[in-house]
Amino acid sequence: PHSPAQKLVFNRVNGKRPQVLPQQVSAPEECYTLAHEENVRFIYEAWQQVEQQLDGSRSGESACGPVQYIEKTPNPGLKNFVPIDLEEWWAQQFLAKIENCS
């Protein structure tokens, strides 16, 4: 008998729990070019630096650096907006590629 496949676990850096999304039964396979993956990696790494600088400025380590913009009167049209969790998205893509290969 086959033993069940080992489940991959991705630890969250920011401590947020992932949203449980229904899996699509027949999702078309997406192909990413090396340039696309490099662009995503660049943006991700740059954003990590911005978040580190923001955390440093909040704790008083730095007098200059990025400033977080917070709206005084939020747009009601964005009331239910949920930002994408890029780490979760990459994890889902990675697992989908593994499942498609097996």
TrEMBL record:
It comes from the Eukaryota. One of its GO terms (cellular component) is nucleus. The keyword Cytoplasm applies. It is found in: Cytoplasm, Stress granule; Nucleus. The keyword Nucleus applies. This is MCRI2 protein. Keywords: Cytoplasm, Nucleus. The gene is Mcrip2. It comes from Stercorarius parasiticus. Belongs to the MCRIP family. It holds the Pfam family FAM195.
